[in-house]
């Protein structure tokens, strides 16, 4: 497939593109949006003209995107993900020295924001990359992630030369892996991460940089202890050890465990990860602008609008897992970018308009 259109090429939502041999980037942005772009093992990406903000692959730049998935050959290889966001070219290059499995893949997607769990948003990179490995074994490589200088945030005497690289693996521990200042190549505006003989669990996660003290050693975790408002301190307790302080306004950028009925009374609630027990209910109501992060478990989300909180719902929507209830007394569209989920309830009055795609 050749992209040769200075106006760009937009892929409509709910489409997966699979390319077996070659993607030729001549001119124009290939905007895949939330869709997944799959490049087979022998597929190459050829720049007929140099990659740039006007000649690249673009997503919606959200952690909820599906990104670019490249199947990797065994042994040594190199590959460049020529990706970016609107007006930002932020590619990721990988140089692999070892990979013993055939059929493994690495999916990459950029997120044009600071990581939600950081302690100080004014001293971290306002950009991060999500990596998802599947079937990689004995994987040794170096990854270089290109950042834009305007996304570097510092205060006081801090500079980008004080930045360290850091990653948060998606292993459930909430532990940040912090490295040192040598991982940031300031002259080339690159973050450098090394992998040695690892597998999927040692790769899948989020990668960024910032001042050491601005990045927590561990993402804070909270669990509900009674029904209540998200913003009420009395609704929560620290987890797994109770007794710690609860942030004013409720958890933010944290790992949350919902086992009671929690109502969101205001806009822009944020979590890194939201876990539901069978008795857990999150009532969003008509509020908006929320970020639930990675959504897991088999509870229920209730809302009175068709726009779900930003999140990765792969687990929550899977068989025998969570429920979405659309309620209220107004007419609105639902499931415009979702093709399957485990259980749906339509309640209240008014019309619930399904999108024009198979569901």
> Please, how many helices?
0
Q: Numbering strands along the chain, what is their spatial order in the largest sheet?
A: 3-6-9-14-15-21-17-18
The biggest sheet, with number of strands, parallel, antiparallel or mixed sense and barrel status, is: 8 strands, mixed
Number of domains: 2
Features:
mainly beta; 2 domains; eight-stranded mixed sheet; six-stranded mixed sheet; globular
Give a verbal description of the structure.
- With 359 residues, the protein is mostly beta strands.
- It folds into 2 domains: 2-214, no CATH class; 221-354.
- It contains no helices and 35 strands.
- The strands form 7 sheets. An 8-stranded mixed β-sheet has the order 3-6-9-14-15-21-17-18, with no helix packed on it. The protein has a 6-stranded mixed β-sheet with strand order 24-22-25-27-29-31, with no helix packed on it.
- The protein is globular.
- The mean pLDDT is 95.
Task: Provide a quick synopsis of the model.
The protein is mostly beta strands.
Can you lay out the helices and strands and say which pair or pack?
Layout: E1 2-4, E2 9-10, E3 17-19, E4 22-27, E5 30-33, E6 37-39, E7 44-47, E8 57-59, E9 68-71, E10 77-81, E11 83-85, E12 88-89, E13 92-98, E14 105-111, E15 128-134, E16 139-146, E17 164-169, E18 176-178, E19 184-185, E20 190-198, E21 205-210, E22 221-224, E23 228-229, E24 236-238, E25 254-258, E26 261-263, E27 271-276, E28 281-285, E29 291-297, E30 300-303, E31 310-312, E32 323-326, E33 332-334, E34 343-346, E35 352-354
Parallel strand pairs: 1-4, 2-5, 3-6, 4-7, 5-8, 6-9, 8-11, 22-25, 23-26, 25-27, 26-28, 27-29, 28-30, 29-31, 30-32, 32-34, 33-35
Antiparallel strand pairs: 9-14, 10-13, 11-12, 13-16, 14-15, 15-21, 16-20, 17-18, 17-21, 19-20, 22-24
């Amino acid at each position: 497939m050749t992209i040769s259109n200075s106006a760009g090429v937009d892929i409509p939502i709910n489409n997966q593109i699979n390319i077996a041999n070659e993607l030729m980037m001549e001119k124009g942005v290939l905007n895949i949006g939330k869709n997944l772009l799959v490049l087979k093992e022998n597929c190459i990406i050829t720049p007929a003209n140099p990659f740039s903000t006007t000649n690249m692959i673009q997503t919606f730049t959200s952690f909820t995107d599906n990104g670019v998935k490249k199947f990797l050959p065994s042994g040594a290889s190199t590959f460049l993900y020529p990706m970016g966001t609107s007006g930002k070219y932020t590619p990721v290059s990988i140089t692999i020295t070892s990979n013993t499995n055939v059929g493994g893949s690495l999916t990459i997607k950029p997120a044009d924001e600071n990581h939600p769990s950081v302690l100080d948003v004014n001293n971290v990179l306002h950009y991060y990359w999500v990596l998802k490995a599947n079937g990689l074994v004995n994987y040794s490589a170096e990854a270089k992630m290109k950042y834009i200088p305007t996304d570097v945030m510092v205060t006081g005497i801090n500079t980008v030369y004080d930045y360290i690289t850091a990653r948060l693996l998606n292993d459930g521990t909430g532990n940040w892996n912090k490295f040192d200042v040598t991982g940031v190549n300031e002259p080339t505006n690159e973050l450098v991460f090394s992998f040695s003989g690892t597998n999927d669990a040692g790769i899948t996660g989020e990668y960024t940089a910032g001042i050491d003290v601005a990045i927590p050693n561990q993402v804070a975790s909270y669990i509900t202890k009674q029904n209540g408002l998200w913003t009420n301190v009395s609704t929560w307790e620290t987890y797994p050890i109770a007794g710690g302080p609860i942030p004013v306004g409720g958890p933010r950028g944290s790992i949350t465990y919902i086992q009671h009925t929690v109502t969101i009374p205001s806009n822009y609630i944020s979590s890194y990860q939201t876990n539901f027990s069978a008795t857990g209910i999150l009532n969003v109501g008509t509020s908006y602008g929320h970020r639930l992060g990675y959504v897991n478990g088999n509870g229920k989300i209730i809302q009175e609008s068709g726009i779900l909180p930003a999140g990765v719902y792969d687990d929550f929507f899977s068989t025998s897992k969570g429920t979405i209830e659309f309620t209220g007394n107004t007419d609105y569209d639902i499931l415009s970018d979702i093709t399957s989920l485990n259980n749906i309830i339509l309640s209240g009055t008014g019309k619930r308009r399904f999108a024009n795609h198979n569901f």
